[in-house]
Design brief:
By secondary structure, this protein is of the alpha/beta class. The chain has 15 helices and twelve strands. The strands form two sheets. Strands 2-1-3-4-5-6 form a six-stranded parallel β-sheet, sandwiched between helices. Strands 9-8-7-10-11-12 form a six-stranded parallel β-sheet, sandwiched between helices. Helix 1 packs across helix 15, helix 9 crosses helix 13 and helix 11 packs across helix 14.
């Protein structure tokens, strides 16, 4: 297939590796490597409309105690449509790509085929994510309307998990023939060499690595309890926490707390990479997760993940191959027992590290994602 011209629609700056946890950046680069020439049409914002929406949100919270999901409001979505239609009119494109961009394409009027992908639908997120609880009823309806319009506008659609794809079909009647589940990849410029990632480990200390911004939302208390339980079992364990504010009462000699490490900063990224390489398990008893790019990154380093089975995590972690999923009811002791069972069998542990890396190479990387997208493009005869 010949290279095509792609208009890349994002609200945030794709060059920023913290934008959507880096997805915007790594998708951009994967499209350029594998599919075509990409024109960045973001960042884009509608300052006045956004300000007005925030004012309405504040008034609603103050007077009614209800949230207004203004990021997925008709008012803001129409403003984005006007912005991007002007940008699209300036050049000829073969394809529009809108990552997580339901609000950007819902009211977009264009003859150019649109590819919309995300890790969740708004139906998935309402009352699942904290910021989307206790919504005004008309805001809830607008959020669903935006998702419906985006799916209808798109020429083809993908979601990163069966959890999200099932919602697209069930809640928004997305035709199965224009929908495909495509797992997202690890947000890494370069994966470590396979030999380095899967080398046999002879550690005496079971090193747990926890990465997240919100201590409670990511299951920090459960991870800490797992550390304590492992120590009670006589296993020499330690836990390193990165990126979140841990309550002051949570202290232990075997607990290390580090600040947020940015991939935009080469020194901090190197520190993050070392943690992936030196740790023995990636632990994240997350309470709600749409997918979990971090689990793909862990797999790239041959690092097994032990996580909460919530949302779309089961499409990021493959049970028994790159880690294990525990129910949301699982406590620290449950996590510790699962980890101990693997840790006390060195052969099984090292095999799990190899299969974790295999999963990354076979499908949890952005080039594999782009290959699947390319197949969808070919079926639409785009660029032919």
């Amino acid at each position: 297939m010949k290279r095509i011209k792609i208009a890349y629609i994002t609200g945030l700056d794709p060059r920023d590796k913290t934008s959507w946890s880096g997805v915007h950046y790594y998708v951009w680069k994967a499209l350029e490597r594998n599919i075509g020439d990409v024109e960045l049409l973001g960042p884009a914002e509608a300052p006045f409309t956004l300000f007005l929406c925030k004012v309405l949100h504040g008034i609603s919270l103050y007077l009614l105690g209800k949230r207004f999901n203004y990021r997925h409001s008709v008012m803001l979505s129409r403003a984005y449509a006007r912005i991007f239609q002007k940008k699209l009119a300036q050049k000829k494109y073969d394809l529009i790509v809108a990552p997580g961009g339901s609000a950007f394409i819902a009211f977009l009027q264009t003859d150019v085929p649109v590819f919309y992908f995300s890790d969740a639908t708004n139906a998935n997120l309402i009352n699942y994510r904290k910021m989307l609880t206790n919504l005004l009823e008309w805001s809830r309806k607008q959020s669903l309307l935006i998702e419906q319009a985006a799916i209808d506008t798109a020429s083809f659609v993908s979601f990163s998990s069966k959890w999200a794809a099932d919602s697209a079909i069930r809640d928004f009647h997305c035709p199965p023939e224009k929908l495909k589940v495509i797992p997202l990849g690890a947000n890494l410029e370069f994966a470590p060499p396979r030999e380095q990632a899967v080398r046999p480990r002879t550690d005496k200390t079971c090193k747990l690595f926890f990465l997240g911004v919100d201590w409670d939302h990511k299951g920090g208390p459960v991870a800490f309890d797992a550390l304590l339980e492992l120590l009670k079992m006589g296993i020499d364990a330690e836990l390193t926490v990165v990126g979140c504010k841990v309550p002051t009462e949570i202290t232990h000699p075997r607990l290390t707390i580090l600040p947020f490490l940015s991939k935009n900063n080469p020194k901090e990224f190197l520190q993050l990479e070392q943690l992936y390489l030196e740790s023995c398990f990636f632990i994240l008893p997350t309470r709600s997760e749409c997918y979990g790019i971090c689990f793909c990154e862990a797999a790239a380093y041959g690092l097994p993940s032990i996580a909460g089975n919530s949302g779309g995590v089961s499409s990021s972690i493959e049970e028994g191959k790159s880690g294990y999923l525990l129910p949301l009811s699982a406590n620290g002791k449950d996590y510790a027992l699962r980890i101990a069972g693997i840790w006390n069998d060195p052969a099984a542990y090292n095999q799990l590290r190899i299969s974790s890396r295999n999963l990354f190479e076979q499908g949890r990387n952005w080039d594999a994602w782009a290959e699947s997208v390319q197949e969808m493009i070919a079926k639409k005869s785009i660029g032919v």
